[in-house]
Amino acid sequence: MTLDRRTLIAAGLSLAATPRVAIAASAASRFPIWPATPPGMPGPPVVDDFVLRSPNGPADNIAWPHVATPMLTVCPATKPTGAAVLLIPGGGYARVAVGRAPSPVARWFAAQGVTAFDLLYRLPHDGWAAGPDAPLQDAQRALRVIRSRAREWGIDPTNIAAMGFSAGGHLAARLASRSALETYSPVDTADSQPTTIKAVGLLFPAITMTESFAHGQSKHELLGKTPDATTTARYSAELNLPADMPPTFLGHAADDPVVPVANSIAMFQAVHALPRPAELHIVETGGHGPRLIGPDGKPHPWLARFATFAHRHGLNIPGDDA
After folding, report:
1. What positions does the domain BD-FAE-like occupy (predicted)?
2. Which of 64, 80, 240, 290 is the most exposed place for a label (fewest CB within 10 A)?
3. How far apart are CA 114 and CA 317, in angstroms?
4. In angstroms, rounded to a whole number, what is the distance separating the alpha carbons of residues 46 and 1?
5. Domain 29-313 class?
6. Cα distance between residue 136 and residue 180, in whole Å
7. What is the mean pLDDT of each run of 10 residues along the chain (322 residues)?
């Protein structure tokens, strides 16, 4: 069921806050990352469109099958440490599963003193000129906008991490490994900012496009039905990693029926072989996309372990080794 966007105009106020991650809704804001139309708009133009993920679920439990206006939703830190994290949701590159209000994971990071940003990014199937690089354009632009406005949110522009989930993990991995790749021409002064990050977290990520264990939907949506070998290699996140790959944390369930755990293993092995810091946590059960913030506000162990890992590698976030 497709809904008119006005139907959920107040959706940002509908999420029930949990004790450990509560933040005033008025403190959050949502804004476009591009000053005008994003680069490479197809014709006819794309129109923003979202759907309810569950007919009886919360009003802000939505996904976007078409994105014309890439957005950031900022969740300011309760007591800022100067750190920030860019959160990249999944959806198999067929849609983007993110609401308008800050996500539970964003609120958890904010409670740790880390200003968090949820990214709504464009999808290749809408015909953007950059094709499979359109999502990466948005991720790079988002980082640059965050850095250009760092003082506004009390952020140290050198202390920014990224975390991606499922197909968003593939995008986060490419963001981490392709900071030298210029995917679009500068549009304003924000684009003078770098796209490097302090650390990256990849949770149940789609990684490879070349191997038999590639996530079929992500590969099809990103590259089409019959991509050639050169293209699949170019978009396989575990290949051609830079010598300065950011410290990389991975979490996956061994019984994931959607994205095989072999994706995370391949990424870990590739980063470790550079050699660069890498940490992989595989749990026996959990399926795909386990709940990362419990009803009581308690985080999944992956989040706490990422915090410890990122802290060890310079991100200003409390960790067990703090």
Report:
1. 82-269
2. 240
3. 7
4. 19
5. alpha beta
6. 12
7. 34 31 53 98 97 91 98 97 99 98 98 99 98 99 99 98 99 98 98 99 99 98 97 98 99 99 99 99 98 95 98 93 56
**Structure tokens belonging to residue 188:** 């304003």
Q: Which residue has the tokens 């099809």?
A: 220
**Cβ atoms within 10 Å, residue 155:** 24
Q: How far apart are CA 223 and CA 201, in angstroms?
A: 24
The pLDDT, as a whole number, for residue 183 is 98
* pLDDT on residue 27: 54
User: How far apart (Å, rounded) are the C-alpha atoms in residues 138 and 121?
Assistant: 6
Q: Which residues contact 244 (CB under 8 A, 6 or more apart)?
A: 276
Domain ranges within the chain, ordered by starting residue: 29-313
